[in-house]
Amino acid sequence: MAGRAEARDARGDPALTRGRRGGASAGGGAGAGGGATVPECTACGTCCFSLLPEYVRVFGCDYDRMDDRARSLTHFIGNRCYMRIEDGRCAALTLDASAGRFLCSIYEERPDCCRALERGSGACLGELHEKRERPLLALDALRRRAGGEGGQGRAGGGAPP
């Protein structure tokens, strides 16, 4: 199944713009439709948004793979490690307001749970169904802030409180 391997690393291949897999529409993609177009991961970023501090678990093998910069984006709750959530999204997510892109600043070192999420899978479609507007709100807030302050850099903002 070449489609499965291609979907797994869709962030690295901008040519992949369709994300339909057999069975993906059964059960999770309400509103997405059976042949719905799934945006490129870098044009979406929905899966990186959450308000839960325990959203992205970082296991020992993940932590070992990370360098000091990537480790600075994690936090511990008790003896468990998680990616930090800032402004309603993973602290590793970088927003490019001018291009409308969502990039993982630690993509090569990202946790296994991020690596396992396949573009167009039921889990991906579920994320899109539940949180599709969050990345758009974050980009909008960044653009407003950049227009008013002339600032640039890692995006703040996100969903309104």
Verbal overview:
The protein has 161 residues and is α+β, with helices and mostly antiparallel strands. The protein has 6 helices and 7 strands. It has helices at 2-8, 60-65, 68-71, 112-116, 122-131, 133-149; strands at 57-58, 74-77, 80-83, 85-86, 89-90, 93-96, 101-104. It has a 3-stranded antiparallel beta sheet with strand order 1-3-2. The protein has a two-stranded antiparallel ribbon with strand order 4-5. Strands 6-7 form a two-stranded antiparallel ribbon. The longest helix is centred in the C-terminal third of the chain and has 17 residues, at 133-149. The model is unreliable at 1-33 and 150-161 (pLDDT under 50).
Write a concise synopsis of the structure shown.
With 161 residues, this protein is α+β, with helices and mostly antiparallel strands.
Helix/strand/pairing category: alpha+beta
Could you tell me the number of beta strands?
Answer: 7
Low-confidence stretches: 1-33, 150-161
Strand order of the largest sheet: 1-3-2
How would you sum up the major sheet?
3 strands, antiparallel
Portion of residues in beta strands equals 5-15%
Apparent shape:
globular
Number of helices: 6
Question: Which percent range fits the helix content?
Answer: 25-40%
Mean pLDDT: 78
**Oligomeric nature of the chains:** single chain
| Rg value | 16 Å
Encode the helix/strand succession as letters.
Answer: HEHHEEEEEEHHH
Ends apart, CA distance between termini: 43 Å
